[in-house]
Amino acid sequence: MAILKGRHPDNIAGTYYVDNQCIACDACVVEAPKFFAMNDKEGRAFVFNQPKSQIEIDECENALAGCPVEAIGNDGLDQIIT
After folding, report:
1. Distance CA 25, CA 1 (A)
2. Helix (H) or strand (E) holding 38
3. For the chain, how many structural domains are there in total?
4. Per residue in 13-66, pLDDT tens?
Protein backbone atom coordinates (compact mmCIF):
# COMPACT_ATOMS: atom_id res chain seq x y z
CA MET A 1 0.00 0.00 0.00
CA ALA A 2 1.26 3.47 -0.89
CA ILE A 3 2.31 5.73 1.96
CA LEU A 4 1.01 9.30 1.90
CA LYS A 5 4.16 10.59 3.66
CA GLY A 6 6.19 9.10 0.78
CA ARG A 7 4.18 10.99 -1.86
CA HIS A 8 6.52 12.14 -4.62
CA PRO A 9 6.54 15.95 -5.09
CA ASP A 10 5.85 15.68 -8.85
CA ASN A 11 2.26 14.58 -8.08
CA ILE A 12 -0.39 17.26 -8.38
CA ALA A 13 -2.64 17.78 -5.38
CA GLY A 14 -5.52 15.38 -5.10
CA THR A 15 -6.64 11.96 -4.04
CA TYR A 16 -4.35 9.86 -6.27
CA TYR A 17 -0.57 9.92 -5.98
CA VAL A 18 2.54 7.82 -6.51
CA ASP A 19 4.92 7.36 -3.60
CA ASN A 20 8.67 6.75 -3.42
CA GLN A 21 8.27 2.96 -3.78
CA CYS A 22 7.75 3.35 -7.55
CA ILE A 23 10.09 1.22 -9.68
CA ALA A 24 9.32 2.96 -13.01
CA CYS A 25 7.67 -0.13 -14.50
CA ASP A 26 5.36 2.12 -16.56
CA ALA A 27 2.26 -0.02 -15.82
CA CYS A 28 0.22 2.94 -14.56
CA VAL A 29 1.16 5.08 -17.55
CA VAL A 30 0.02 2.31 -19.90
CA GLU A 31 -3.20 1.68 -17.94
CA ALA A 32 -4.20 5.33 -17.35
CA PRO A 33 -2.15 7.67 -19.57
CA LYS A 34 -4.54 10.60 -18.99
CA PHE A 35 -3.51 10.62 -15.32
CA PHE A 36 -0.05 9.10 -14.89
CA ALA A 37 3.25 10.11 -16.48
CA MET A 38 6.86 9.08 -16.04
CA ASN A 39 9.61 11.30 -14.71
CA ASP A 40 12.45 9.66 -16.63
CA LYS A 41 15.11 11.69 -14.85
CA GLU A 42 13.95 10.56 -11.39
CA GLY A 43 12.89 7.09 -12.54
CA ARG A 44 9.36 7.10 -11.16
CA ALA A 45 5.79 7.80 -12.18
CA PHE A 46 3.60 10.63 -10.93
CA VAL A 47 0.01 11.84 -11.18
CA PHE A 48 -0.36 14.87 -13.44
CA ASN A 49 -4.16 14.92 -13.66
CA GLN A 50 -6.78 13.91 -11.09
CA PRO A 51 -9.96 12.05 -12.13
CA LYS A 52 -13.24 13.93 -12.16
CA SER A 53 -15.80 11.32 -13.21
CA GLN A 54 -16.54 7.74 -12.21
CA ILE A 55 -15.11 6.46 -15.50
CA GLU A 56 -11.86 8.33 -14.81
CA ILE A 57 -11.79 7.07 -11.22
CA ASP A 58 -12.16 3.53 -12.56
CA GLU A 59 -9.14 4.08 -14.83
CA CYS A 60 -7.04 5.25 -11.87
CA GLU A 61 -8.27 2.35 -9.74
CA ASN A 62 -7.23 -0.08 -12.48
CA ALA A 63 -3.76 1.49 -12.50
CA LEU A 64 -3.63 1.25 -8.70
CA ALA A 65 -4.61 -2.42 -8.81
CA GLY A 66 -2.01 -3.16 -11.46
CA CYS A 67 0.93 -1.55 -9.67
CA PRO A 68 3.34 -4.38 -8.84
CA VAL A 69 4.84 -2.60 -5.82
CA GLU A 70 1.67 -0.87 -4.56
CA ALA A 71 3.18 2.59 -5.05
CA ILE A 72 -0.13 4.23 -6.05
CA GLY A 73 -2.36 5.62 -3.34
CA ASN A 74 -5.90 6.98 -3.33
CA ASP A 75 -5.89 8.43 0.16
CA GLY A 76 -4.52 11.88 -0.72
CA LEU A 77 -5.60 15.02 1.03
CA ASP A 78 -8.14 16.29 -1.49
CA GLN A 79 -11.51 14.77 -2.28
CA ILE A 80 -12.55 13.70 -5.77
CA ILE A 81 -15.40 15.71 -7.21
CA THR A 82 -17.86 13.41 -8.97
Report:
1. 16
2. strand 36-39
3. 1
4. 999 999 999 999 999 999 999 999 999 998 999 999 999 999 999 999 999 999
